[in-house]
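User: I'm preparing a small set of examples for a lab meeting where we compare how different chains pack in three dimensions. I only have the primary sequence for this one, and I'd like the structure in token form so I can line it up with the others. Please keep the answer compact; I'll paste it straight into my notes.
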Amino acid sequence: MQEVYKSTGGQLDYRHENGEISQVNIDLAGMGIRRIRIACLPSEAKKSTIKECMSKFGDVKSIRDDVRFIME
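Assistant: Understood. Below is the structure token output for the 72-residue chain.
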């Protein structure tokens, strides 16, 4: 999102169906901390591997085990 913001200078043109063009301002909002739950990982999955994979999307602050059981 930050790359889009930087490359556009915060503004883009939007072409309506009738051909009219409106200028749209772009701003970064709601880009704070996100909690992500990853289901069905094997118990032997290492936190370092998870952190390495998720770091592509941002700074990993912490990883916590959350074990839940589903019984039928």
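A couple of notes for your slides: The longest strand covers residues 11-15. Residues 47-54 form the longest helix (8 residues).

User: Perfect, thanks.
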